[in-house]
Amino acid sequence: MRRLLILAALFLVAMGGARAEDAARQALDAADMGGIVEFAREQGAEVDPAAVAEAALSGEIPGVAAIFDWFQARAAEPVLEALRAGRRLIAPTLLLALLHCALPDGAGGAAGAAFLLRLTLLLEFSEIASGALSASAECVRAAKSLAGAAAPALTALLTAMGMSGTSALVSPAAALIGDAAEGLFLNWGMRLCRFALCMAVAGNLSPAVDLSGAAKLLRKTANWGAGLATTLFTALLALQGSVAGAVDGVAVRTAKFAVDSAAPVIGSGVSDAWDSYVAGVLIAKNAVGISGIAALLGAALRPMLRCAATMLTLEAVAALLSALGEKDAARAAGQAGGICQMGLSLATGAVAISTVLLGAAMAAGGNLAG
After folding, report:
1. Segment 84-103, tens digit of pLDDT
2. How many CB atoms lie under 10 A from the CB of residue 172?
3. Of 96, 92, 89, 87, nearest to 125 (Cα)?
4. Cα gap 128→132, rounded to integer Å
């Protein structure tokens, strides 16, 4: 054992002249970022993870102004898409308002014409909300894919630091995110959204049928479920990460002390080389985490903005219909907007737990530097 420690000491002294930046680039080259790069290309994220990681190695993190410009450049398309979808609601809404003004008592065939216009609006609400839910599902799938793509690189870098306990948590946590995204958010959450959308249509075909209570229950279930899943995952990851980080910290510092003790003459050189090595791997690990978060935001931003813009459009239509005296159609538009909000909650929850995983991996081992 003593001979192995001496050999390790000699190896560290041999690389002792290397700077932390050089060690970071070597560690980043050794880590496999191919999964993150492939994820960005498949999702159309318009982000180059390798370039982001290289910039992070040099400390060139974008400021608030640059992030705002990036957000603004990508926000226009989903907002315009939601407005184009809402434009289809203008004609039946105006016709319904005109019908109310011309025949306020519903005489003759006015009642039948009003029903047909309401049915047209309900079908449009359903189609618009379905598009938003599809965008939400796309966002959830992106969050699931990113967790699996980033796990190998983060695991390799944590293992290179000697943090075997923490590295062993990354892959199971990524698998847990995949299970949550697939089982909870997609299978159950999206089904609740579809059921609520059906109730929003069926419950507003006639004033005699009111399913708003059931739709509200489904909405609360989906929103609370997404929030609870995010909270539980964050708490579990924080607890496991704290325990594993403490054990890994003791193990790594014990190994360093053993190497220094085994080679007392060159111990200072070993210590300096060790510090440079650990600092370099930390920088590389943070660069991988930042590139992963950038790729995830690039893939998830447009679907989330589409959900939000669609929700606001439907809420505005609901307010207009309510002002025109169309309570049933206004209630349907409001419920459709609430369903878009359900989809947005599911997408946000999936993105949040993936971001928490990357953030926890970036924070691991910070107390080992120096």
Report:
1. 888 888 888 888 777 777 66
2. 11
3. 89
4. 7
